[in-house]
Design brief:
Elements: E1 2-7, H1 24-39, E2 46-49, H2 53-65, E3 74-75, H3 85-92, E4 100-105, H4 109-118, E5 131-135, E6 145-150
Parallel strand pairs: 1-4, 2-3, 2-4
Antiparallel strand pairs: 1-5, 5-6
Length: about 150
């Protein structure tokens, strides 16, 4: 099973709404990552996203680039910024027979999830719009191998 982790693109720092949206450079970074995914032939059987606007917009750009139906994206509270690894695993455990899953979320929840699955106390920085892959046969602590695949310039 491959679990891909992607932090949302850079968001507007000055916003007047209830939460920040992707800024122009953030959208460009997400588009660069989406182009990388497509050029490498990476596909996702399932896309799961935080419901926060910047993560949802990121997941939408990826889905649209890969011709994945945006309406099939699962939006879950379990990938919000302060979600615990246990909360993220609750949703992932529902899809253990799924070969390739993209999770779009935030700091600090994504690195915490990666640390738990890899059995380490710290892991690479998670820059905006970067893509990481965890390869695992189970969703147990220490079972995954971690690889950074792409980070937009």
């Amino acid at each position: 099973m491959y679990i891909y982790l992607m932090r949302h693109g850079t968001a507007n720092s000055d916003y007047s709404g209830s939460e920040p949206a992707l800024c122009n450079s953030g959208r460009v970074g997400v588009e660069e990552t989406a182009d990388y995914i497509k050029s490498e032939g990476i596909t996702f059987d399932l896309i799961i996203s935080s419901p926060k606007l910047r993560a949802a917009q990121t997941a939408d750009v990826i889905a649209e680039t890969l011709d994945y139906p945006v309406e099939n994206i699962i939006r879950t509270e379990h990938l919000k910024p302060n979600s615990t690894p246990a909360e993220a695993l609750r949703i992932l455990c529902q899809y253990t027979k799924t070969a390739s899953i993209l999770c779009v979320g935030h700091l600090p929840s994504l690195p915490r999830l990666a640390c738990g699955l890899c059995g380490v106390s710290s892991i690479h920085a998670f820059p905006n719009a970067a893509l990481y892959r965890l390869e695992t046969d189970s969703l147990t602590p220490g079972s995954a191998d971690f690889t950074q695949l792409f980070s937009p310039e």
